[in-house]
TrEMBL record, chain A:
It is found in: Endoplasmic reticulum membrane; Nucleus membrane. It comes from Linnemannia hyalina. Involved in protein N-glycosylation. Essential for the second step of the dolichol-linked oligosaccharide pathway. Anchors the catalytic subunit ALG13 to the ER. Heterodimer with ALG13 to form a functional enzyme. One of its GO terms (biological process) is dolichol-linked oligosaccharide biosynthetic process. It comes from the Eukaryota. This is UDP-N-acetylglucosamine transferase subunit ALG14. Keywords: Endoplasmic reticulum, Membrane, Transferase, Transmembrane, Transmembrane helix. GO terms for cellular component: nuclear membrane; UDP-N-acetylglucosamine transferase complex. Belongs to the ALG14 family.
From TrEMBL, chain B:
This is UDP-N-acetylglucosamine transferase subunit ALG13. The keyword Endoplasmic reticulum applies. InterPro entries: Alg13-like (IPR039042), Glyco_trans_28_C (IPR007235). Heterodimer with ALG14 to form a functional enzyme. The gene is ALG13. It catalyses: an N-acetyl-alpha-D-glucosaminyl-diphospho-di-trans,poly-cis-dolichol + UDP-N-acetyl-alpha-D-glucosamine = an N,N'-diacetylchitobiosyl-diphospho-di-trans,poly-cis-dolichol + UDP + H(+). Pfam families: Glyco_tran_28_C. It comes from Linnemannia hyalina. Residues 4-158 form the Glycosyl transferase family 28 C-terminal domain. It is found in: Endoplasmic reticulum. The keyword Glycosyltransferase applies.
Length: 300, 171
């Protein structure tokens, strides 16, 4: 009798779990599917908005070594009055990239000071080193600072655990990936996601007041060029989209494949190709194989 | 007058290139091509103490002054001084040398598993920015003197990326 009851109970539980589990999996799968950039009409910033954005929150992943060198070369060409604030994300053990960030930002600061002397640019060097030493709290303060004051914040530096170490076994990689994902999720939310009021210009008044700073929208972009750890950042963004955060409040995912890849994509490139909103390659032959990618010449 | 040759393996291990560079036959060849100094940056690869002293400059029977060291934080100075660079095929070293408009011979490490370096070397060779070879064809390649007639590599154009991103973001 008891056995019979237990059997029935187990069956009932299994059916219930299946009833909940299968639709849940299906819903998650369809959400993921519709969150992928090729399956959704991404907000076309240039045509949709007639108002020029106020600024673009720029998050930059630095993958150490050659990746860092190429990425900083790309960043060095950006107009830092538009792409501000800049948040650099580096691997935990990558002090050399952090040094290079400080060096580049000092140059950028000098450039922008000479460009807008009358504006009286605020000291940038202090902000950078402060963030480095004081991790989260200082960064938080700086971000709220810039959001409230619309002042020219220089940059912040953040560290995340690597998804995969050199020579790490493929078996343990999922665990380290999850670890960096857990760090990446809140970081991405905090650094890159915009509030509704930031993402949208004051409707109606937007066009008329296009010169008025308060009426103009903000954009966000996440720049990546490998290696594997940036997968955690991209997945975190896809995750926020799956959770229902509107596209224009999440960062535009931009991947730039290395100059070193002529005929084949890197592992990071292959993984991020379906996830990214824009995918640049530096050799024309790759475009035939990867039609969503774009070749606009050598970038480094 | 052409004086200095720099052989560099970057931060990699490339025993065969280092062995070739420290061999008397290659040093004789470089001397006959008119070079007087050879710098070998050998990174993690061992260098035989019989051919060269591991620290300072030594004069060999080949007539070539040879300096060897493992690594420097920046190779830029040595690259600037060199008249000919013989480098491993890492994209970082290649770009650095091309930017300085140096005569560049790139040696692909055929022992690497995922050999996309060959693709990069070949692609840049095709456009005459450098000469690409392997350790076994290095001497022949140097003799052919193709490195004397290379195209200058275009300077980096950072506006390409910034224009792309500006358009995308709506600036």
């Amino acid at each position: 009798m008891d056995q019979h009851l237990a059997g029935n109970l187990a069956l009932a539980t299994a059916i219930t779990l299946a009833l909940i589990g299968i639709p849940l999996t299906l819903i998650l799968a369809s959400r993921l599917w519709s969150s992928l950039p090729q399956n959704r009409p991404r907000h076309t910033t240039s045509s949709e908005s007639t108002t020029r954005p106020l600024a673009c929150t720029t998050t930059i992943f630095l993958g150490s070594g050659g990746h860092t060198a190429e990425m900083l070369q790309l960043v060095s060409g950006l107009d830092c009055a538009h792409y501000t604030p800049r948040h650099y994300v580096v691997g935990c053990d990558d002090s050399s990239s952090v040094e290079k960030v400080h060096r580049l930002e000092t140059l950028l600061a000098a450039k922008s000071v000479t460009r807008t002397e009358e504006k009286g640019a605020r000291s940038r060097s202090g902000a950078g080193t402060g963030t480095e030493a004081g991790a989260g709290i200082t960064t938080n303060r700086l971000i709220s600072d810039i959001k409230s004051n619309r002042s020219e914040l220089a940059y912040t530096v953040h560290r995340i655990p690597r998804s995969r170490h050199v020579h790490q076994s493929m078996l343990t990689t999922p665990f380290t990936l999850v670890k960096s994902l857990l760090v990446a999720m809140p970081l991405i939310k905090r650094l890159t996601c915009l509030t509704k009021s930031e993402a949208h210009s004051n409707t109606g008044a937007g066009k008329a007041q296009s010169t008025d700073a308060a009426g103009r929208p903000r954009r966000s972009v996440l720049l990546m060029n490998g290696p594997g750890t940036c997968l955690a950042l991209a997945l975190a963004v896809i995750g926020t989209r799956m959770a229902g955060v509107p596209d224009d409040q999440t960062p535009d995912l931009v991947f730039v494949e290395s100059f070193a890849r002529v005929k084949t994509l890197s592992l990071a490139g292959r993984l991020l190709y379906p996830l990214c909103d824009a995918f640049l390659v530096q050799w024309p032959g790759l475009v035939q194989q990867y039609p969503r990618s774009k070749y606009i010449g050598t970038l480094v | 007058m052409p004086g200095t040759v720099l052989v560099t393996v970057g931060s990699t291990q490339f025993d065969k290139l280092v062995a070739a560079a420290s061999s008397p036959s290659l040093q004789h060849l470089l001397n006959s091509l008119g070079y007087s100094h050879l710098i070998i940056q050998h990174g993690k690869s061992p260098i035989s103490s019989t051919t060269t002293s591991t620290t300072d400059s030594t004069s060999l029977e080949s007539g070539l002054q040879v300096i060897t060291y493992t690594y420097k934080s920046s190779l830029r100075e040595d690259m600037e001084e060199a008249d000919l660079i013989i480098s491993h095929a890492g994209s970082g070293s290649i770009l650095e040398a091309l930017r300085l408009n140096k005569k560049l011979v790139v040696v692909v490490n055929e022992d690497l598993m995922d050999n996309h370096q060959q693709e990069l070397g070949d692609a840049l060779h095709e456009q005459h920015y450098l000469v690409c070879c392997t350790v076994s064809t290095l001497e022949k390649t140097l003799l052919a003197k193709e490195y004397e007639s290379l195209e200058p590599f275009p300077q980096p154009d950072t506006t390409r990326f910034s224009n792309f991103l500006d358009a995308r973001m709506g600036f």
